[in-house]
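Researcher: First entry.
Model:
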Amino acid sequence: MATFLDVTGLEYFTNIFVFLFVVVVVYATLLWSRILGSNSFVNILVSLLVGIFVLFSPLSISLIASTAPFLAVVFVFIVLINIAAKMLGSGLETMPGFRGGVIMLVIIVLLIGVGIKIKGQYEVEAEQSGQDLSKSFNLLFNPKFLGIILVFAVAVFTVALLSAKG
């Protein structure tokens, strides 16, 4: 019997939800930090490209699908803290350390999610190949993981250098 609480059919739309989540979060982050300037077209284009690149990797889709609820809770708490601060007469603009704390909290949540997903994926591969990758040292210095970090670093520096005012 189907009820309105039965949401198991939504798992087929996970890719669309992940794409929309990535586009919105990247666009909001670019507007908030003004890394690429205040040009809306550039911000929208970069956020759409990042969303499309995320769709090419099943690992990133599963990672975002599993960490998005935790990030949503963090963002709800940020909104609630902002409302409480405005009710008291100040706001988040008067708390300069709060911005860095929020960024660190989001990075910590993402790193925990990445670690759990990658360790789970490599544990399955280790059982099949007979390797022991349970130690974090082996995980951090795995060639696949280091390759991901290298590609990410090149992408970050490319965007930073292309957006710098000459």
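Researcher: Second entry.
Model:
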Amino acid sequence: MIGNLRWLGLGTALLAAQGLIANLLPAWVRPDLVLIYALALGVRRASPTWSLAMAFGFGFAFDALSGSDPGLYALLRGTACAVTRAFDRALYLRAPLPWGLYAAGWAVVDWIGMVAVLQLLRPAALPGWLDVLVRVPGAAVATGIAAGLLYALLRRVESAEERDSSWTVLSSAGSRR
């Protein structure tokens, strides 16, 4: 339970930082912190259902704060969490460099997914291809760098959660005696 609260607090802090970054940096160098958070929830070992629900929830919050179509970022962040969880063992994302490269690659996939969903649902809201091609490389590199820098924090929250769960197991075993 304490681990879930830590992840909830971290997600809230990253969502607030994303709003601040949106006002400070141009779109072509803006890292996507909510995407990094959703990817981190995918490699989380505990409670996969809670992780997926938080990824969708923070995606909806990002939808509300950014003024985008309701559910667009929720769909993309939930998908990022689920795919990362499915391929976690194969990718072995346990170091800053692979984690940053994965986040940068997923940022490109995220843009492609956004354009595909907008093309299907609202072709009039589709950004121009030149706009997408200008934004994607810088945003993907910025997301990868931010993911590499946030790696230590994300691992610390994960290890603290494991440490809390081991104490919970020990305390419940001691109470049975």
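Model: Note on the second entry: The chain is about 80% helix and 0% strand.
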